[in-house]
Each structure stands twice: as structure tokens, then as C-alpha cells.
From TrEMBL:
One of the record's GO cellular component terms: plasma membrane
TM ranges: 6-27
Name of the protein: Signal recognition particle receptor FtsY
Segments for region (Disordered): 36-93
Source organism of this protein record: Garicola koreensis
């Protein structure tokens, strides 16, 4: 009799211990996202990021973050280890990058502003001068309509006000350029969504800087303390996924890619959104391929990527990347893309290498969509939000 009581007691104890264990585990799952950041600052060198196991979803891989990270000083660790340089970089905050990149914009674009100011400050502004002004604006890729509009308005203002004072002329030009670029556009990126990750598709022809832009944008978002996941849906160029994974791992952001060459980009994009949802990231950034040799093919492929992603989640932003140095050609590309997907914002890259800042006006006019970001160099933090006032200031800097 006593033995059976003892056995019953032992069985009850085991069941109780099991129950307490289960409660503890499920309690951990319910820990709010923000208190268990996806990429903890302190990890053991061999820790895996959540859900980062290779091949977990069939052909889709989630690239590991860099293995070694120095533990924080508060963690008990040998001194030498605590001082080791962290493998994950800290991206530059947006405010300081703006100040730094402004100088680059001034350097490449103020030729345009300076020659305009010089022309407008002449003692006599005759027909020849107005023609020269027109030419300068066209050379800056402002586009014919906007050039005519600006010249007409300036002509009128200069005649009515009769002022040749360079400061006054500069102010007029500044005002008119700001009006043309339209400060009314909402240039904020939609990178927050309610109860799910915000989904951003990045599209554009090859070579314009798409993959680089996704990488740079991930850094901007990480600097703003957002959890990000990347989707390498440019399955056309073999090295693109690797390139993207490298960008991501530098700032501790995982990348979803396919181990099958030429895999279906829509399925990689879907997997990235799926993984982002599972990991409760704030943003999913999807890089896409941009072959333009066949318009119908491109439209089919991009349309499909968007449709398939939409089975899982809304798409919050479609960013079209355009190379500022390609002028009119870029505008034609923009048109094709905007027919394929509903573009919500433009990223204008390589503005550091051209005096054709006027392309901002032409593109916005053509697509009715704002330039939201500008690329001003090949460095990892050379991407900045577009701001009309500072852009025009940089054009007209002395
Ligand atoms: N100077 C300058 N170079 C840039 C900028 N953005 C990108 N690049 C360079 O442009 C080149 C092409 O960039 P990628 O990101 O590979 O272009 P992509 O559009 O992804 O090309 P595909 O993957 O072939 O479709 C790289 O050498 C980049 O460093 C920029 O703002 N300024």
C-alpha cells in the first residue's frame, strides 16, 4: 500500500514539473517584440539569430549574421575579448549624413546654379541671355516643359520687379525652383505598418544601383533602430544575392535568398515577407531583377512578384531606382516600370557624378511620384532622404 502511495506521489511530481516547464516556454514566446530585439547586442559567438537555420524553408536560405560579436562590457568576459572590435557596423545617423552629403551635391550640381545666377545678374537680360538660360536648364535635364515654365516666370518677375540685385535674383530663382520641385509631395517612406512588417519592393533596370540602394536603405533603417530583413529576389544575376547578403550582414540584417540559380523571384519575395512576418521584423526590403530587353516580360515578372507578395501582405512602397546620369533614357525606363507596378517613390542614384540635378523635376512631372531618396556616392552611408529646400540650396550655393 505504502509503495503505491509513493509511486502516485512521484508521478504527480513529474507531471507538475512538466507543467511548470511548459508554462515557462510559452511565456517566453509571448515576450513582446521590442523587449526581445531580433538582433540582441550581446550574444555568444555561436548563437544563431532567430529562424536563421539554413534550408529551413526548402530552397530558401536565411543568411546568418556575422558569427563573432564582442560581448558588452557588463557581461563577464575576459578583457581581451571585451575589447575586440564588433563585427557588426553602426550605420551613420541620417542627420549627420545629410550634412556630409550636401557638400557632394554642391560640388557636382552648382555649376548649373552658378551659371544661371551669372546670366540673370547681367546688366541687360536680352533675348540671347534668355536663350542661354534656357540651354542651361535643358542641359541640367529639367525637361522642355519645366524649362519653358521657369523661364517664362522668371522673365515676368525680372521685368516686373526690375531688379538686377544678385541676391534678389537668387531669391527669385530659389523660389521658382522650389515651386517646380513641389514641396507638397509626401516624401516620407512608408516603413511602418500595423501589426505586420512594412513591405518595400525595390525595382529598376540593372546597373542603376538597386542592390546597393537596398543595402544602403537597410542601414538607414537600422540607424533608426528598426528590425529589417532583406529578400534577394534578383535571381537573374547570380552575384546579386551574395552582394545583398554582404550588405545585410554588415549591419546584422538577415537575407532571404534562393540556392537555386534562376529561381522564381516571386517565390523568394514571398518567402522573405513570410520570414519577416515570422520574425516580427519592422520592414521587409525586397531587391528585384530589372531586365529591360523585353518590356512584356519585365511587366509580367514584376507584376507577378507584387501579386504573389500580396497574397501574404500589402506592399507599402514600390521604390523605383533611377540613375541620374542617364537623362532622358531614365525617363523612358521610369515609364515602363510605372506601367508594370504602382511606383510610390523614386530613388535617384549617382547624383554625385552629374550636374543634371534638374532630372528630379522631370521625373516627378512624368510619373507624378516624388523623389524620396538620393544616392550620392558608392559609400555605404551615401544615401539620404530628398529634401527640396536643401536640394535647391545646394544647386545655388556660392
Ligand atoms: N557614384 C555612385 N555610384 C553608385 C551609387 N549607387 C550605386 N552606385 C554604383 O553603381 C553600381 C551598380 O550598382 P548595383 O547596386 O549593383 O546595381 P543594380 O541595379 O543592383 O544592378 P543589377 O543587380 O545588375 O540589376 C555599383 O558600382 C554601385 O557602387 C551612387 O549613388 N553614386
Amino acid at each position: 500500500m505504502e509503495t503505491s502511495v509513493l509511486i502516485t506521489f512521484i508521478v504527480l511530481a513529474v507531471v507538475l514539473v512538466g507543467l511548470v516547464g511548459t508554462l515557462l516556454v510559452s511565456g517566453r514566446k509571448l515576450t513582446p517584440k521590442k523587449t526581445r530585439r531580433l538582433y540582441p547586442e550581446t550574444r555568444d559567438a555561436d548563437d544563431q539569430p532567430p529562424g536563421a537555420a539554413e534550408g529551413e524553408d526548402g530552397d530558401t536560405l536565411v543568411a546568418d549574421r556575422p558569427a563573432a560579436e564582442a560581448p558588452e562590457a557588463a557581461v563577464e568576459a575576459p578583457e581581451a575579448e571585451a575589447e575586440a572590435a564588433p563585427a557588426v557596423e553602426t550605420p551613420e545617423p541620417v542627420a549627420s549624413r545629410l550634412a556630409r552629403l550636401r557638400a557632394r551635391l554642391v560640388k557636382s550640381n552648382n555649376v548649373f546654379g552658378k551659371s544661371l545666377l551669372a546670366l540673370l545678374s547681367r546688366d541687360e537680360i536680352d533675348e540671347d541671355v534668355w536663350e542661354e538660360i534656357e540651354e542651361t536648364l535643358l542641359m541640367a535635364d529639367l525637361g522642355t516643359d519645366s524649362t519653358m515654365e521657369l523661364v517664362d516666370t522668371l522673365r515676368e518677375r525680372v521685368t516686373v520687379e526690375g531688379s538686377k540685385d544678385p541676391q534678389r535674383v537668387r531669391a527669385m530663382l530659389h523660389e521658382e525652383l522650389v515651386k517646380l520641385i513641389d514641396p507638397e509631395f509626401d516624401r516620407r517612406l512608408t516603413v511602418t505598418a500595423d501589426g505586420r512588417p512594412a513591405v518595400v519592393l525595390v525595382v529598376g533596370v540593372n546597373g542603376v544601383g538597386k542592390t546597393t540602394t537596398v543595402g544602403k536603405l537597410a542601414r538607414v533603417l537600422v540607424a533608426e533602430d528598426k528590425d529589417v530583413i532583406l529578400g534577394a529576389a534578383d535571381t537573374f544575376r547570380a552575384a546579386a544575392a551574395e552582394q545583398l547578403t554582404t550588405w545585410g550582414s554588415r549591419v546584422g540584417v538577415p537575407t532571404v535568398s534562393s540556392d537555386v540559380e534562376g529561381a522564381d523571384p516571386a517565390s523568394v519575395a514571398y518567402d522573405a515577407v513570410d520570414k519577416g512576418t515570422e520574425l516580427e521584423t519592422d520592414v521587409v526590403l525586397v531587391d528585384t531583377a530589372g531586365r529591360l530587353q523585353n518590356k512584356a516580360n519585365l511587366m509580367d515578372e514584376l507584376g507577378k512578384v507584387k501579386r504573389v507578395v500580396e497574397k501574404k501582405s500589402e506592399v507599402d512602397e514600390v521604390l523605383l531606382v533611377l540613375d541620374a546620369t542617364t537623362g532622358q533614357n531614365g525617363l523612358n525606363q521610369a515609364k515602363v516600370f510605372s506601367e508594370a507596378v504602382n511606383v510610390t517613390g523614386i530613388v535617384l542614384t549617382k547624383l554625385d557624378g552629374t550636374a543634371r540635378g534638374g532630372i528630379v523635376v522631370a521625373i516627378q512631372k512624368q510619373l507624378g511620384v516624388p523623389v524620396k531618396l538620393i544616392g550620392l556616392g558608392e559609400g555605404p552611408d551615401d544615401l539620404a532622404p530628398f529634401d527640396t529646400e536643401s536640394f535647391v540650396d545646394a544647386l545655388l550655393e556660392d
